[in-house]
Amino acid sequence: SSRVMEIQSQMSERAVELLGLPEDRPCLLLDVGCGSGLSGDYISDEGHYWIGMDISPAMLDVAVEREVEGDLLLADVGHGIPFRPGMFDGCISISAVQWLCNADKKSHSPPKRLYRFFSTLYTALAQGSRAVLQLYPENSEQLELITAQAMRAGFTGGMVVDYPNSAKAKKFFLCLFVGASGTLPKGLGTECADGEEIHQAKFTNERTRFRNAKGKSVKKSRDWILEKKERRRRQGKEVRADTKYTGRKRHPRF
């Protein structure tokens, strides 16, 4: 639904923000549990490149139909991250890591699968980079299990909780550092607790100001469309030629 897509987009935006990526160059990111590529769309809009992993062939088929700009890999992250050391400048994951806590087969051991995931992810990330994993833990024990295996694999960092006093807007982001430990970002909505609707509106407005402050083109504008088409040309994809009608809004029919 449109509401789910909006929430997914907001969480992706927040995850990329927590990565603290440099603004002067494009980065290569890993999207764990990429699904239909909604998170990847935001990564592409920010001018970065990405590779997505997902265990669901059906979701990846949707991503292919949507013609996402990232590369896609069908894989179970519980078996590890199959990329060369230091390949990625960062990693995000939206609502995926908690599934590694489930034992879907007799051979599945959640602690072992989590450690395999985190240890190979640590290797695949460049020194000084970050991984930001948004998750929905069922309970405190599950949260502790995930965090413990991440620290055992060599990561430093911790949990960033946005809007901790709101039942609906509360979000957990496991922010992990590779190499030297950085300063853990502060969660949104931690200074005041006026109400969840105000929090959500505040979150949206702050992110809009942040995006405009960076000088990014307004989404769906002519400049935004031209930039996206140029990125696709650099990737060797077929793109329609630019014309005076590119990005022009059509009048509604009566």
From TrEMBL:
<feature type="compositionally biased region" description="Basic and acidic residues">
    <location>
        <begin position="236"/>
        <end position="245"/>
    </location>
</feature>
<comment type="similarity">
    <text>Belongs to the class I-like SAM-binding methyltransferase superfamily. BUD23/WBSCR22 family.</text>
</comment>
<keyword id="KW-0539">Nucleus</keyword>
<dbReference type="Pfam" id="PF12589">
    <property type="entry name" value="WBS_methylT"/>
</dbReference>
<feature type="domain" description="Methyltransferase type 11">
    <location>
        <begin position="30"/>
        <end position="108"/>
    </location>
</feature>
<protein>
    <recommendedName>
        <fullName>18S rRNA (guanine-N(7))-methyltransferase</fullName>
    </recommendedName>
</protein>
<keyword id="KW-0963">Cytoplasm</keyword>
<keyword id="KW-0949">S-adenosyl-L-methionine</keyword>
<keyword id="KW-0808">Transferase</keyword>
<dbReference type="InterPro" id="IPR029063">
    <property type="entry name" value="SAM-dependent_MTases_sf"/>
</dbReference>
<dbReference type="Pfam" id="PF08241">
    <property type="entry name" value="Methyltransf_11"/>
</dbReference>
<comment type="function">
    <text>S-adenosyl-L-methionine-dependent methyltransferase that specifically methylates the N(7) position of a guanine in 18S rRNA. Requires the methyltransferase adapter protein TRM112 for full rRNA methyltransferase activity. Involved in the pre-rRNA processing steps leading to small-subunit rRNA production independently of its RNA-modifying catalytic activity. Important for biogenesis end export of the 40S ribosomal subunit independent on its methyltransferase activity. Locus-specific steroid receptor coactivator.</text>
</comment>
<feature type="domain" description="18S rRNA (guanine(1575)-N(7))-methyltransferase Bud23 C-terminal">
    <location>
        <begin position="176"/>
        <end position="251"/>
    </location>
</feature>
<dbReference type="InterPro" id="IPR013216">
    <property type="entry name" value="Methyltransf_11"/>
</dbReference>
<dbReference type="GO" id="GO:0070476">
    <property type="term" value="P:rRNA (guanine-N7)-methylation"/>
</dbReference>
<dbReference type="GO" id="GO:0005737">
    <property type="term" value="C:cytoplasm"/>
</dbReference>
<comment type="subunit">
    <text>Heterodimer with TRMT112; this heterodimerization is necessary for the metabolic stability and activity of the catalytic subunit BUD23. Interacts with GRIP1.</text>
</comment>
<dbReference type="InterPro" id="IPR022238">
    <property type="entry name" value="Bud23_C"/>
</dbReference>
<dbReference type="InterPro" id="IPR039769">
    <property type="entry name" value="Bud23-like"/>
</dbReference>
<dbReference type="GO" id="GO:0016435">
    <property type="term" value="F:rRNA (guanine) methyltransferase activity"/>
</dbReference>
<keyword id="KW-0489">Methyltransferase</keyword>
<feature type="region of interest" description="Disordered">
    <location>
        <begin position="221"/>
        <end position="254"/>
    </location>
</feature>
<dbReference type="GO" id="GO:0005730">
    <property type="term" value="C:nucleolus"/>
</dbReference>
